[in-house]
Design goal:
Layout lengths: L1 H27 L5 H7 L8 H11 L6 H13 L13 H36 L4 H15 L2 H15 L18 H39 L2 H8 L4 H18 L2 H10 L2 H6 L5 H10 L3 H29 L8
Helix pairs in contact: 1-14, 2-3, 5-6, 5-8, 5-11, 5-14, 6-8, 7-8, 8-10, 10-14, 11-14
């Protein structure tokens, strides 16, 4: 096991190196230059804008080749220096720390609700195949997969915020006329997050329910399940002790994506509801070519993705002793 983990960590270093190199190259090759446009806009009031622009370009290694510029960034990153955002001049790490908590807690709640709702419904749909539960979950699955998040969110805002006024205003984390203590502020923020969280849960249920149902149906048709039933084993034990344990193995694969998703945010939901989480901030930085922020953000997500895959591989061996992690 230790040998396997060390081997995977070594491979992870090369994966992170490759991802960050490709990401840096893509952003360096973007046709638009946000920095140049930013300084050009100051040309009317700042006669030294061109010199200042050249200094910043040289500081970030943007005046040299892509490969040389990448290693300049990598050298600073290894020292923990990710520079300052092109957009507002804020320190990249501080900017990430400010935007991350909102998205993280939103995604924690969404993930827990998704697992608590989708997995039992998927199991129920498989056990009662072609029953009412199966048809209802199929409809929910189709809605969750088919409806674009921005379309569904726009409808929800129209109904619950505009027409009914339950979540008005729908933009932002805090009401514009808020005036209260810290506890009241927390409640106000929680109220503004209800609709985004509900939408995220509804949109994410479909795939997990279908995945659980499909794997559960496959396991329920296995010979050892029929043998257990023939021996008189209780239905609950057959389903949750024998069948679900083997169904959980494919579900572990989803763990590799859950870990980075907790920190990635949702730029569509956050943008529509005016929530300045990490998803919204990273989307803005990506569109505007904010290289220091984008590189730090994608490095962070890449590390979490590699970590998620490693944990999933280890859990395979935990849930199924037949799986051996070789060196």
């Amino acid at each position: 096991m230790v040998k396997y983990i060390l081997k995977r960590l070594l491979i992870a270093i090369f994966v992170i190196f490759g991802v960050t190199l490709i990401t840096y190259a893509l952003f360096r090759l973007m046709p638009d230059d946000y920095l140049y446009n930013k300084f050009l806009a100051q040309s009317g009031t700042n006669p030294d804008w061109l010199e200042q622009y050249k200094r910043v370009v040289k500081l970030y290694g943007l005046d040299v080749s892509v490969i040389k510029g990448y290693f300049t960034w990598l050298g600073s990153a290894l020292k923990g220096d990710f520079g300052y955002s092109f957009i507002n001049g804020a320190e990249v790490i501080s900017k990430i720390k400010r935007a991350l908590p909102v998205s993280f807690w939103m995604n924690i709640i969404v993930t827990v609700l998704q697992l608590v709702i989708a997995i039992p419904l998927g199991i129920r749909a498989a056990v009662k195949q072609y029953g009412a539960t199966d048809y209802i979950t199929t409809v929910i699955t189709l809605l969750g997969i088919s409806l674009p998040s921005f379309f569904f969110a726009a409808i929800a805002i129209k109904i619950f915020a505009v027409d009914l006024g339950w979540f008005d205003p729908s933009l932002g984390l805090i009401s514009t006329d808020f005036n209260g203590n810290s506890f009241q502020k927390l409640l106000d923020m929680a109220w503004h997050l209800v609709l985004p969280i509900l939408l995220s849960v509804i949109l994410s249920l479909g795939g997990l329910m279908r995945y659980t149902r499909t794997n559960m149906l496959e396991v329920l048709g296995a010979d050892y399940i029929r043998t257990a039933r023939a021996k008189g084993v209780k239905q609950a034990n057959v389903i949750y002790k024998h069948a679900f344990k083997n169904t959980a193995i494919p579900l572990i694969t989803l763990l590799a994506g859950i870990i980075p998703s907790l920190f990635a945010g949702s730029y569509v939901i956050e943008q529509l509801f005016g929530i300045e989480g990490i998803g919204y901030v990273s989307y803005t930085a990506t569109v505007q070519g904010d290289i220091p922020f984008v590189m730090a953000y994608y490095l962070f997500i890449t590390i979490l993705t590699v970590l998620g895959i490693l944990i999933a591989d280890i859990l395979y061996a935990v849930f199924d002793p037949r799986i051996k992690l070789g060196g």
